[in-house]
Amino acid sequence: MTLVSKRTPPKRLVECELINLAAADQTRFVQVCEQRYHDRLEAAALAALESGAQIVMLTGPSAAGKTTTARKLSALIAESGRRSAVISLDDFFVGEGRYPKQADGSDDYECVEALDLPVLRQCLQDLAGTGVCETPIFDFLTQRPTGTTRHIDGRGGVVVIEGLHAFNPALGVDSLPKGTAIHMYAGLREEYAAADGSRTLATRDIRLARRLTRDYLFRGHDADFTLRLWPHVCQSEDRYIKAFKSRADLVLDTSFSYEVCLWGHYTPKMTAHEYADRLQNLCSRFEAFEPMPGTVVPTDSMLREFIGQ
User: Fold this and answer.
1) Which domain covers residue 92, as residue numbers?
2) The domain that contains 272 carries what CATH number?
């Protein structure tokens, strides 16, 4: 089994009935899926170390789990005895009053120019040159940079930089000395099919279920809010991630086969009015799986990013 690929591997199409057979022993099924993710993560950490790169530029679509994956990847690198840290590109937002505008006059938070590119490029150059840098700290409540910085010391180690625009050439990674940085793509690679082989759930559906659950449980958003925003999220992914996906040096699969049973438990708890049909359509496709409660998910699982502790 390929744990980490240097090119985008084809997606796996798994029959729903196989998931239900495995789910008959929930504890074992969860353990196997969690171990597979951990094995893939270990392989990615080893590949990053063996590359000799000082920087890992990590991206992935919404709800792919890139934030937690970046943190876990950094922890595994540190366990090897090397320094490691995580930098979020979100800390480089220019802030209220400086965002580029969309055609309708609203702020555009997702274009690459929403980041303070000169500051970001300087941080990358400092990491490449000395292994240390000062990163800004962004206050999401006030929507402004705090004016303070965080000291990053990656000397002799690997710094993981994660975010929507991690693959964008505008960041200036290509101007760094050769071998300084590698690009890692984190995304789901498993989809699901009915007995006749027809696809019933795509990776984008799974990510939508992850985001719906997280927004519902922790961000105070009903399903209408998330479903209304989702087309724009997908458009941004196509424009800012897929356009540069070929830059990936490594592809890390963040799928968990058992999670479709989780979303069969969580999504029916949500309500929608404006997008009731869309929600019902999604929920109906999870009905093919035996539901599992969140209590089966290990406390250190990446999926806790979406269901909490």
Assistant:
1) 12-303
2) 3.40.50.300
CA distance 194 to 71: 35
Query: Are the C-beta atoms of residues 158 and 55 closer than 8 Å to each other?
Result: yes
Question: Could you read off the pLDDT of 7-61 as tens digits, one per residue?
Answer: 667 899 999 999 999 999 999 999 999 999 999 999 999 999 999 999 999 999 9
Total number of domains in the chain: 1
| Pairwise CA distance, residues 257 & 54, whole Å | 33
* Main-chain phi, psi angles of 163, to 5 degrees: 160, 170
Q: Which amino acid is at 129?
A: G
What single-letter DSSP state applies at residue 5? Answer: B
- How far is it, in rounded angstroms, from Cα 299 to Cα 26? 16
Q: Report the percent of the chain where pLDDT is more than 70.
A: 97
Return the DSSP state at 4. Answer: S
Output the six-digit token pair for 306.
Answer: 């979406």
pTM score? 0.92
CA 215 to chain CA mean position, Å: 15
**Residue 255 and residue 204 in contact, taking contact as beta carbons nearer than 8 Å:** no
List CB contacts of 55: < 8 A, sequence separation 6 or more.
Answer: 124, 127, 128, 154, 158, 159, 160, 161, 173, 176, 180, 181, 182
190-193 and 199-201 beta bridge pairing: antiparallel
Strand partners, 153: 132
Q: By C-alpha distance, which of 117, 42, 110, 118 is closest to 80?
A: 42
Residue 3 lies in a domain: no
Helix (H, G, I), strand (E, B) or coil at 252: strand
